[in-house]
Every structure is written in C-alpha cells, then in structure tokens.
Specification:
By secondary structure, the protein is of the alpha/beta class. It has a single domain, classed as TIM Barrel (Alpha-Beta Barrel), CATH 3.20.20. The protein is built from 13 helices and 8 strands. Strand 2, helix 4 and strand 3 form a beta-alpha-beta unit. It binds flavin-adenine dinucleotide.
C-alpha cells in the first residue's frame, strides 16, 4: 500500500496531474501526445521589442501551451510593462497568462494593489517569488519595510486579495541562501501551506539532478506538481555567469560543446535547441510530461525545441472560430 501510494505520488509529480493508468505507455508510443508545455517571457523594453514579442507569442500559441508567464524585473522595475504584457495576452490571445510578482521594491499595500489590478484585468495565475536582493545576486537580502518578506508571505497575501492560482519556485540544486535540504524543502512546504499549487524549478542541466530532487520532495511529503524549468540561452558566457551566481552546475560535456563556439552564434543556437530537447526527452523517458521553457523571448528557439520534442503546432486561431 505504501509502495503503491509512493509510486502514484511519483507519477503525480512527473505528469503534473493525477496519474492515469497507462499514461506512460501511451505517451511513449504516440509521439508527443501527452507533453504539456509552458513558456516564460520577459516584458519588452521598447515598442519595437514589444511587437517582436507579440509575434513570438502568436507563434508559440500554435503549440497550445498550458500557460505562459511574464517575469517581473528585479526590484519591481518592470511593474507597468509586466502588467501591460500579461493584460494583452489575456485580452488578445487564447493563452492562459501568469504574471510573476516579487516581494522586492514595494510594501504590502502596493503589492496588494498590483494583485487587485491583475484580478480586474482577468489574470488568475500568479508566479509568486521573493525576488533577488536589491544589490543583485549574492548581496544580502533585506525585506522591504512593511513588505512581504519571503515568497510564502507573498502567497498568503495574494490569497487574501483573491483566489489566484499560485505557482512558486523550486530549486533542484538548493537556493543559494538555503542552509540544507531540510531548510529548502521546509520553505517549499510553507509556500504550499500558504496556497501554492504548482512549483516551477530553477534551470538545471542533468536529468538526474531533477529526478533526485523529485525524490527528496516526495520523501518530504510534497505532492504538488513540480515542473522542470529548461533554459534556452544560447549565450554560453552569460549562461555560465548566471549559473555560477545561482549555484547551478554545468556538466563538463556542456562546457566542451559550447566553449569553442564564441564566434559561432548560429551553431550555439542550434545546439541550445538540441541539448534542451535532449534533456526534456531524458526526463520524459522517466515519466515527466510537463516542461516549462525559459524562452528569453526567442520564439524560434522555443518552437524548434518543441518540434524536436514532438509537440505539434495546431491552428489555434482557426479552432477558436470553429468552436
Ligand atoms: C521559476 C522562477 C521564476 C522566477 N521569476 C523571477 C522574476 O520574475 N523576477 C525576479 O526578480 N526573480 C525571479 N526569480 C528568481 C527569484 O526571485 C530568486 O531566486 C530569489 O532569490 C528567491 O526567490 P524565491 O521565491 O525562490 O524565494 P523564497 O522561496 O522566499 O526563498 C528564498 C530563500 O529564503 C529562505 N527563506 C524562506 N523563508 C524564510 C524565512 N521565513 N526565514 C529565513 N529564510 C527564509 C529560503 O529557504 C530560501 O533560501 C525566479 C526564479 C524561479 C525559479
């Protein structure tokens, strides 16, 4: 009985929904049928970038993602642009949109007001985060006066504003400020107790890293879906810089592949799609069925990665007219 429950819970994590008997067998024989995807974008800085992003969103809409999310700049610097982007997605596309929101840069009253504005604009899903220290990654974190201190406090506050669907972060290689795995998983549990129903992970490069994390989460009694976050960053130098600050390990094979390609952005682009799709395929072989892509607004890269993975484009706009 205990073994069966644990197995079912494991399937629940990996599939992102309650296990359906035979799901894995069908998925492996039907080529892409049971893959769920979601995409993260960042808010555009200029009108021109805004139009480029909008074309990207329309292209990726055809892949029928579960949801798309829009980041919130460090210290709340993109408050207006995040709102405008998410509100436009809700209004003008068939996509379900999630707004990222952090505790940094605003007190509780201001955050609650932002949340109310999202609810009024028809946004029902928030990715609730603490945010990085004002001094940048690695600097000491100091909560805002009268603010939400941590993501778990923000989740509680958001649930008091309205009945949002709430996703939170998870860290397969520990958050840099976490003392140990108990500390890490206790924090995720606090966020779930406050009302979060999905976790999206920090990016990582090894399927084993993610699967080991799932096992730890299960052993800690965590049963919400944990969605692997896959990074689509062809800028290898930038990626290694961020990975180091976030304590994310990059395997030797990845360094060996990308290091000689500084002057060859085209090959880096192709390899980024291929390595991300390969990582997703390895996870899929172990039963994972939902993948969250950090697109960095590069729609072609995200689209190609999904094609390799077997996610087929559909004519969503035409379907909308027919139904
Ligand atoms: C999927 C995803 C999306 C993201 N999107 C954005 C974004 O849009 N904008 C942005 O600025 N950043 C974003 N980030 C980065 C995130 O803001 C940073 O990683 C940040 O450092 C931590 O945020 P968190 O929500 O994970 O924090 P928390 O879950 O609050 O945890 C942060 C650390 O504090 C510790 N902690 C928690 N509660 C307490 C407590 N009560 N006392 C002491 N310690 C505690 C935790 O153990 C952990 O080590 C994202 C990260 C992920 C994984």
């Amino acid at each position: 009985m205990i073994i069966e429950e644990t197995r079912n819970n494991r399937d629940f994590h990996r599939n992102g929904h309650r296990p359906v008997p035979g799901t894995l067998a069908r998925a492996s024989s039907s080529g892409g049928e049971h893959i769920n995807i979601s995409f993260e974008f960042f808010p555009p800085k200029t009108e021109k970038m805004g139009e480029a992003l909008w074309q990207s969103i329309q292209k990726l809409e055809s892949l029928n993602p579960d949801f798309v999310s829009v980041t919130y700049g460090a210290g709340g610097s993109t408050r207006e642009r995040t709102h405008q982007t998410v509100a436009r997605i809700v209004k003008e596309s068939s996509l379900k949109a999630a707004a990222h929101l952090t505790c940094v840069g605003s007190d509780k009253a201001e955050i609650d007001e932002i949340a109310r504005e999202y609810w009024q604009a028809g946004v029902r899903h928030i990715v609730a985060l603490r945010g990085d220290p004002v001094g940048g990654l690695g600097a000491p974190y100091v909560p805002v006066d009268n603010g939400y201190a941590y993501a778990s406090d923000l989740v509680t506050g958001l649930k008091n504003v309205a009945d949002f669907e709430i996703s939170v972060s998870a860290y397969p290689e520990l958050h840099p400020e976490s003392l140990n795995w108990d500390d890490e998983l206790d924090n995720l549990k606090r966020k779930i107790d406050a009302g979060a129903t999905r976790a999206i992970t920090q990016f990582f490069f090894s399927a084993d890293t993610f699967m080991r994390y799932l096992d730890k989460a299960l052993d800690a009694g965590i049963s919400i879906p944990i969605i692997p976050g896959l990074m689509l960053q062809p800028n290898y130098r930038g990626l290694t810089r961020i990975a180091k600050l976030c304590y994310i390990s990059i395997p030797d094979w990845y360094h060996n592949l990308f290091e000689p390609l500084d002057d060859d952005p085209q090959t880096r682009l192709l390899l980024t799609a291929s390595t991300a799709a390969d990582l997703a395929a390895q996870l899929r072989a172990q039963g994972v069925e939902h993948f969250h892509f950090y697109t960095l607004n590069k729609a072609d890269l995200a689209f190609t990665t999904c094609q390799i993975l077997g996610v087929k484009a559909q004519n969503t706009r035409a379907q909308k007219v027919v139904t």
